[in-house]
From TrEMBL:
InterPro entries listed in its UniProt record: IS1182_transpos, Transposase_InsH_N
Protein name: ISBma2, transposase
Membrane-spanning parts: none
Domain (Transposase InsH N-terminal) ranges: 21-118
Pfam family, one: DUF772
Amino acid sequence: MIQWVMLKRAGPEQTALEIVTLDQLVPVDHLLRKIDGVIDFSFIHDLTAPLYCADNGRPPLDPTLMFKALFIGYLFGVRSERQLVREIEVNVAYRWFLRLKLTDKVFDASTLSQNRRRRYQDETIAQAIFDRIVEQAIGAGLVDGTVLYTDSTHLKANANKGKYDLAMVAKSRADYWGELDRAIDAERALHGQKALKEQERQPAVKETKVSRTDPEAGYMVREGKPKGFFYLDHRTVDGGFGIITDTFATPANVHDSIVYLDRLDRQVERFGFDVTAAGLDAGYATPGIAKGLEDRNIQGVVGYRNPTRPKPGKMRKGAFVHEPDLDGYRCP
């Protein structure tokens, strides 16, 4: 007869009392431990204090706890606030990060969502929190702001691409057209040439799809990208350690180049960056951005994009040879 001496059954007892601290239950190499050791979130309390009434109403949910909970949801991909609350209830690392004891009752999901949608609907609060964390990274020597890299990525909107209305809307355009025209006229004047005839650059109107569920999303149609309603997250990182220094969302049908120079100037003004070089994706390769970087004495490096094949019977602009003496182009 074989006796299985080494096998043991797990005991059914789950009510035993144990003396243990919450800190002992969180692995020493857990990501939230690392974040907690380098980011000080305490500033959120004073930053959000003006949004609360000091002598009226029920005791509010601690704003620091709330934003740290939202941070957990983003960091670990928990998109549902109800699911986030359930995860906090059972995850000791989340409780440790939020300074909740094992016996503390977790806040209700509706408290989280209503605060986010009502008290914190102004996006300037989120931007202010982001900026303060970037400043902490600067203080720690992780960001110097001399070399910045920018690219955009599409974020799917929570909207059915088959449910939309057609509407006539103005195309988005950059504000640098007038500046470009003046620069061209100045260059022509140096060569004794007349100024170009002034053109009206009114934004073109086009028919586009507008989501019935999320009208702020843009319908994206790009080569190699999925079609549907999306947003674009324009993100800039510092060249030293890859710390994100700016993030800005636009509808997906807004061209990458539209917001770039404004966001660059904001970082310079907000953090005092002395930017000497900027690396950009090919989507940012426009005359306006090239001139904007030159005016700011910033070396721009832009990704190469293969030119679109010309239509049958047509040739690319690069195929024509410029003849300076004739002030014209020679057809190949």
